[in-house]
Each structure stands twice: as structure tokens, then as C-alpha cells.
């Protein structure tokens, strides 16, 4: 596997003086054209790691090298749609911010909204949508910038279990289908089964300060059957390393 992103001994603390919180402790990781899940307990530093990969936060030490031309799409953990904009204009917003014409931005947004099943909802406002549909808009908006890497921070954690399960399968299918520009996906989660269902590799982090406890290759064919013995064996193996 040819790495697209290389992290070397990335460390990060917050605060100063006597109130320093060490969050990441020497994280080394190569990321290629694959679906990676970053799995760890709440508060261990997963979101911080994802923000460092995206360049939103800077590490205190260590290095991140990324292939020259890579771009990121980000699906944030908390709801981030602007209530006064339609679904279409929410999805087009990052493109308009990049200086693309309104027409072109809307055309692209329309295409990605339809890929996530929101054709016909372009003129709706966020408060008219269910939680699952809002998250579809967030995903379409991240895809519309046509990124090489899709970063997702606990994208299904706020959804009811049935909606979350449908969306997980759709996101994996969309990625595998090759109709988007996404080469690699990095998804933060605290859900072991979700990681085993979706990812090629699972990077298990320790409690804060987060270190890499173990990297597990899932290696099961897709679509994955949660009830199969092979699936449960990997879930059990992952739980061994989750402290
Ligand atoms: N900008 C910040 N300033 C100060 N503390 C922060 C900041 N961002 C995160 N933290 C703290 O760092 C720790 C890890 O946060 P985070 O990366 O969000 O964890 P996770 O996503 O695994 O739940 C938490 O204790 C959080 O309060
Ligand atoms: Mg988080």
C-alpha cells in the first residue's frame, strides 16, 4: 500500500503552565487508499487527531506528510448546517467559499445530494429534515468539494440505530462504487461494531493521552454480515485492545 498521509510521532497537548492536558502521545501511522477507522474511548483525542490530519490543528511535535495534491472533505461530529440556507445552498457553501461560481457550485451540490439520496429535497430547510437526512446533507457537502480524503468524526453517533445502519452501508457502497473522488476515508468512532462493519483497518487508541494500542486488519469481504462468526471473531479481537 502506497501511503497518502504519513504521521510520525505526532504529539499534542492543550493548556499551559500547571494545567497541561496531554492528548496525543507520539502517534505514528501511514494512511493509504483505504477505509480507516480510528477507534478509542470518549475524550481520548480522536477528534484532535482528525483535525491535525486535516490541518485544522497543529501538532506540538512530530510530522505529517501528505501527498502533494490531496484535499480533504470533513463531516463534523456536531450538526453544522446553517438553518437559514436551503439544503442545496448548505451543500454548495464550501464551493462558493472556494470562489467557484454559484451556478457551478449548485450543480455540483445537486449531483452529490442526489448520490446520497436527497434528490427532491434541495429546496428544503435543515429544520424540515430528519437527523438522518441532515447527516446526508453533511456528507454531500463534504463530497461536493471533490476531496481525495473524506474525514468523518463519529458521523452516525447521533442517529437512531436503524438510520445509522442504513447510512453506514450506503457510505461504504458509495465509497466502493468509485462515483466520488474519494480515495481514502478516515472515520473516527467509539463504536467497535461500526468500525468492524465499515473499515479496512482499525487503529485502536489508548485512553488519553492517546497512543496507538493496536492496528487491526479487518479483511472480511463486503457487504459484511454482523451475525457471522468471522465478524464476531474480529469484534472480540478488537475488544481485547480497547481498554
Ligand atoms: N481546543 C482545545 N482546547 C483545550 N482542550 C481541548 C481542545 N480540544 C480538545 N480538548 C481536550 O482534549 C481532550 C481530547 O479531546 P477530543 O480530541 O475531542 O477527544 P475525542 O474526540 O476522542 O472525544 C479532551 O479532554 C478535550 O476536552
Ligand atoms: Mg470527538
TrEMBL record:
One of its GO terms (molecular function) is ATP binding. The keyword Nucleotide-binding applies. Residues 5-232 form the ABC transporter domain. Keywords: ATP-binding, Nucleotide-binding, Transport. InterPro entries: AAA+_ATPase (IPR003593), ABC_transporter-like_ATP-bd (IPR003439), ABC_transporter-like_CS (IPR017871), ABC_transporter_ATP-bind (IPR050166), P-loop_NTPase (IPR027417). It holds the Pfam family ABC_tran. It comes from the Archaea. SUPFAM superfamilies: P-loop containing nucleoside triphosphate hydrolases. Gene3D superfamilies: P-loop containing nucleotide triphosphate hydrolases (3.40.50.300). PANTHER family: ALIPHATIC SULFONATES IMPORT ATP-BINDING PROTEIN SSUB, TAURINE IMPORT ATP-BINDING PROTEIN-RELATED. This is ABC transporter related protein. It comes from Desulfurococcus mucosus (strain ATCC 35584 / DSM 2162 / JCM 9187 / O7/1).
